[in-house]
Each structure stands twice: as C-alpha cells, then as structure tokens.
C-alpha cells in the first residue's frame, strides 16, 4: 500500500508536468514521495481503519493530505540521538513548506505542502 501511494504521487506530478505544463523539480518529486511514504506509513501504523490520500496543486505547491479514522493528532517526539525509528513526523515537518494536523468529524487529516520548483519565487500561483 505504501509503495502504491508513492507511485500514485509520482504519477500525479508527472501528469501535472506533461499534461498541464507545470514545472515540477526532481526535488519536489522526491520530497512528495517521501511525505506520502511517511504519512501513509503513520496512518497504517496508528489507525485501525481506512486511509484516504489526496494530492492537489495549489499556489505553486503540491499538497499532500492523508486522512485516517484515528482522531488522535500526531505529536513530534523530542530529539533523541539514541532512538531508532519513529522519526517520520519529524522528517515531514523538517522538509515540508507547511504542515497541518486537524481533527475531522471522523478521524484526522494531515496536510503537508512542498514547492513544485526550487526556483526563487516558486510559490507564485499556477492554474489548477
């Protein structure tokens, strides 16, 4: 499921690039796949039910949203050089342009955004 989600994210960005001419850097492609991987992994690990992945382009950003049925909001753990694993949320927060976690009427929705390009002024509006 996690590998499939990564492939869907890569396919989405490739489609936006080829069909709509949106600039998508290799960094944006790689980081989007990383965000998808970490967020879907966390949802699979902590939520007992279904997961919804939503990708969209908005204002020069790719927005990755993962919904799951567990209402408990994630909390990044304190830095610990001796800890092995459980760094997913820390990674997401470190690489994302913005990050948001909010409760929904059922479950929660995690949203992280990455700029589509590495160029200065990359966050200008692009048509959807």
UniProtKB/TrEMBL annotation:
Signal peptide: none annotated. InterPro entries: Anti-sigma-factor_SerPK, HATPase_C_sf, HATPase_dom. This is ATP-binding protein. The keyword Protease does not apply. Keywords: ATP-binding, Kinase, Nucleotide-binding, Serine/threonine-protein kinase, Transferase. One of its GO terms (molecular function) is ATP binding. The keyword Isomerase does not apply. Pfam families: HATPase_c_2.
């Amino acid at each position: 499921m996690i590998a499939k989600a990564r492939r869907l994210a890569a396919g989405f960005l490739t489609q936006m690039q080829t069909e709509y001419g949106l600039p998508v850097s290799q960094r944006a492609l790689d980081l989007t796949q990383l965000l998808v991987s970490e967020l879907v992994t966390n949802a699979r690990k902590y939520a007992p039910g279904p997961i919804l992945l939503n990708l969209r382009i908005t204002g020069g950003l790719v927005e990755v949203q993962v919904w799951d049925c567990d209402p408990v909001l994630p909390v990044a753990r304190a830095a610990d050089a001796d800890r092995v694993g459980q760094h997913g949320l820390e990674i997401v927060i470190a690489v994302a342009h913005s990050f948001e976690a909010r409760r929904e009427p059922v479950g929660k929705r995690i949203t992280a955004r990455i700029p589509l390009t590495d160029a200065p002024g990359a966050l200008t509006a692009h048509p959807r």
